[in-house]
Amino acid sequence: MGVQSLPEADAREVLDFVGYLMEKREKTKVTMTDMSEFDQFGAVFDGKFNRDECYDRKVLL
User: How many angstroms separate the Cα of 51 from the Cα of each of 27, 32, 54, 57?
Assistant: First the structure.
């Protein structure tokens, strides 16, 4: 069963949804690939945050 066999209103809704998914994917791709601003911190931050270690820095003592 393809989109062509659906009633026109249902086919239009399916195509609108597909368009929405494609737009969402493009936005996600841009967000995921545009991380150059943060590349300089890549060696410092490994993605894990320990709140207790945050307060153990010499600068705060």
Answer: 31, 26, 5, 11
pLDDT in tens, 9-44: 999 999 999 999 999 888 776 666 566 676 666 666
Predicted TM-score (pTM) of the model is 0.44
Domain ranges for the chain, please list them.
3-60
| Distances 6 to 17, 35, 46, 47 between C-alpha atoms, Å | 15, 42, 49, 47
